[in-house]
Amino acid sequence: MLAFSTAIVAREEPVVPDPHSQGEIGYINPDIPVFDPPEYPGDHYEAVVPATFDLAERARLALHGITSMTNPNLDYEIYFVASHMADPPALLLSNGDLACQGKFMEVLPLMRVMSGSDENMHVEKAWMEVLLRLQGPDGLIYASTIGRPWILPPNFDPASGYPGRNDGYPYVCLLGYSTARSLAALSIYAQKDPEGPWTEAVNRLWSGYQKVIIRDDEDAYVYNTWTAPGKEVIKPEKPFGEHIYLVGSQGWIAKYLAVYDRARQVPEASELAEKMMNYNMFTVEYNEPDGKFKWGGPGVGAGEIQGQCAHFHTHAMNIIAGLYVARQRNNEKHLERAIRAFEYGISKGDPMVGYFPMVTYDKYVGAQTAETCQVADMIVAAVVLSTMGYDQWDHVDRWTRNQLAENQLTQVEWITDGRLDRSRSEIPAGYLKEGEYTTENVAERTLGGFAGWPAANDWIGAEDWWGGNKHQILSTIMNCCTGGGARALFAVWRDMIEYDEGRLKIHLLMNRASKWADVDSHVPYTGRVDIRIKRKLNLEIRIPEWVQPDDVTITVNGKPRELEFDGRYAKVGRVRKGRVVVMTFPIHERTEKRTIEGFDYTFIVRGNDVVHVDPPGRYAPMYQRAHYRNGQTLWQKVTRFVSDESFGWW
Length: 650
Known about the structure:
Layout: E1 42-50, H1 55-68, E2 70-71, E3 77-78, E4 81-83, E5 90-92, H2 97-115, H3 121-134, E6 143-144, E7 171-174, H4 177-192, H5 198-212, E8 213-216, E9 219-222, E10 226-227, H6 244-248, H7 250-264, H8 267-283, E11 309-311, H9 312-329, H10 332-347, E12 359-361, H11 372-387, H12 393-407, H13 413-416, E13 437-438, H14 442-446, E14 477-478, H15 480-495, E15 497-500, E16 503-506, E17 517-521, E18 528-533, E19 537-542, E20 553-556, E21 559-560, E22 564-566, E23 569-575, E24 580-584, E25 589-596, E26 599-606, E27 609-614, E28 635-643
């Protein structure tokens, strides 16, 4: 991994500071109990490790972006949109802010468990306070337009399900998205602090959901995509109307009801999630019997294919929800539908690099970008399938090392040093609204965030988007993608190793510290992995897809070890504490020609890592990885962290 730098070239333009609220901020529950700030116990230690892809270091970086793209004048409300192509770069407030903040709250503690970073703990404490203030008497989470008029769109928004601000509701709960993810955030804090207000809060949120979900025989669905305090719950004649996309938004709710069950042992929650997925998958056939993604209806897509395409992220979330339901309810029918939809998703992207388009379509009218959300979803789905016995680890390895890794913003000098081509980035009138954006230190604050609209070779990827090569390029990060990318980092990190009753299985050859062993991966410099054993155990290591069992050698403290294989797993056998296991195997480069979203690319791949792409990106080129190609390992000093906590239910 290249060293991360935060050096910024000073600009002479006047800085627009973080805006203040437009009047006093209103909360539905202003009086909250006192609670202790969170602590993250565990062991920190220094280590020199190969400078290869490191999930914990990426989590540390993501945590920086998650907690820095926030407004200290608005109780650290997140900025949903970053516009690096604006001059100067800007962070914008929008109706996505509080709709996405639950996503940040879910992953923030998980990034700390991975990395041990205590950066911006004051932001986490403030968010915990805000979450309690947003919880209404019915248990649901209500955003407020009081002091924050940008929180609602002007009119009904089919992309979120929000009502318009002109409808006159001061408090609105969007029943999917942030509210659903708050079930996970509150469950995390309930585990961390059982004596705090979190257990009561998460149980009240579950109770609130039960009141707005209609049970219809073996189906269930929310009575509306949003609600307000005191709003009557009436069974709709046709749930969601023509907005099929909004049917898919139930996937968030179903998944997190299953998560709530896993965390708090409330099987009624998974039973309700199962009914919601019955409605989505079998009544509406949101993901069709052959796996195809059903078109989303009005408001989905742009240009000629508007309404005649499917939003990938929403369908992928339904895949994950289906897998969680299948696992909790032992439901083979949901498992089969989720697998078919997963396979369909693979067919609509590029499985070598993990590029999955924003929408799927029948008629090509211009390139779609690889929104990090759906890249992350497909990785999470592949991880969950693997843990359920359907081995997808090679997909996880490729997609994580390539599109996910490159979608994360790891260097920022290029944003402000004058090299960036902004010729297609003229700011239109009304784009930057007074009192709703900042230009203060934007590049550094966004370090660690994930791209919202990348190409296969460029972090800024709006070339030919929507067709005709006419799209103006301004926005670069939508922070649902930063939360989504962080989710995938945690899923891969948590499940890449598996310990059970004295047996340690290593599924992926990436750097990883743990209480059982530390993994130091030289891949892709060379085909070598060092495993430093911390307790006596039986060790199994999964070899990558390009490696043949006969080409693998293992030494334990320098002495050769005879190997047996169980499929792709090298069975090393019993290893004592303090030993170092070294696995070696050949690694080579190959050239792969791919056509992605109508454009031809030539990738040079070393193992599973893309190390070069031609043509290079125009704005922020990806795959600047020449350092991997000489076969000599570079090293870096890191602070490793082994947490005392685990969240296996997540």
